[in-house]
Amino acid sequence: MRPGVSTYRRISIGALIALSVIIVTGAAVRLTNSGLGCDDWPNCNAERLIDVSSTHAAIEQVNRLFTGVVVVAVAAAVLGSHRRRPYRHDLVWWSWALVLGVVANALLGAITVWVDLHPYAVQGHLLLSMALVASGATLVRRSGEPDGAVRRRVVSSLTRFNVWGIVLGTTVAIVTGTVVTGAGPHAGDEEAVRLGVEIPTAARLHGVSVMVTLGLAVLLVARLRRDRSDAAVVRPGLGRWLFVAMLQAGLGYLQYFTGVPAILVGAHVAGATAVYIVTTQLLLDTSSPEVTSRARELSDVPT
């Protein structure tokens, strides 16, 4: 059975959802101090492959087992990209990027356990997960584009440069956010090492990166008022970005001034995932598939 265009798009959306959910379940492990509920890998411990004898072990085990859901979703994306007709190299490439990322993150997850949740390993685990989310969002967008189309830039150089600034700023904000996490109270285990950075200092660094990125978004809003052609292309995605980013910024300040409760930290991690998805979409909005004669021929090929 060969998946059609709409079927493969649903498969890619499923992969993106799985990649997003596991970020939140991973945060739940850390926020419940269950990071070493399973102190070995791939076994839960030296005696058992699967162990749910304690609450911490059960929470960590559920997160590990959900990795199986991610593997199935990503495998479906890869198999579907190979069997889909017409065959498209870009979909195959992006789906295999998910495979490589999942394997790398699994290995990094093992290292994280072996080094007793050292904050550098935890940071890398989350950042690689964000890269996977960006790849998944790109696959979703590409899977909905016409076969045989060629992507062309559809905005001015200044607008694209401004969007890239937002992408870079968002990335820096997420990186500095992991520094706050590495210095903060939710280490994943009571005995885990913390970064030697004062929490207020890390929070200020993170806050500055967020404010600078929001400033770049406001600058783009001003630009689009003078460039209607770019506005028609970018404004919808920028509106989504501003909505999600403002909610995320507000949530960040709320959690800081309320003593960093675990439930708000978990929501903030989910928000960071959503921010990176809309950031990827905003960047993709700056180019568009151009339907060529080849694309028209492919559209007549039965799938």
Strand content: under 5%
Distance between the termini: 10 Å
Number of domains: 2
Spans of at least 5 consecutive residues with low confidence: 299-303
Tally the helices: what do you get?
9
Short description:
This protein has 303 residues and is mainly α. Helix content is 73%, strand content 3%.
Indicate the topology:
Blueprint: H1 5-31, H2 55-83, H3 89-114, H4 119-143, E1 150-153, H5 157-183, H6 199-226, H7 228-257, H8 262-284, E2 287-290, H9 293-299
Helix pairs in contact: 1-2, 1-4, 1-8, 2-3, 3-4, 4-5, 4-8, 5-6, 5-8, 6-7, 7-8
Written overview of the protein:
The protein is an all-alpha fold and 303 residues long. The chain folds into 2 domains: 1-146, no CATH class; 155-285, no CATH class. Helix content is 73%, strand content 3%. It has a two-stranded antiparallel sheet with strand order 1-2. Helix 3 packs antiparallel against helix 4. It is flat. The N and C termini lie close together (10 Å). Mean pLDDT is 89; it is low at 299-303.
Q: What descriptors fit this protein?
A:
303 residues; mainly alpha; 2 domains; two-stranded antiparallel ribbon; 9 helices; 73% helix; flat
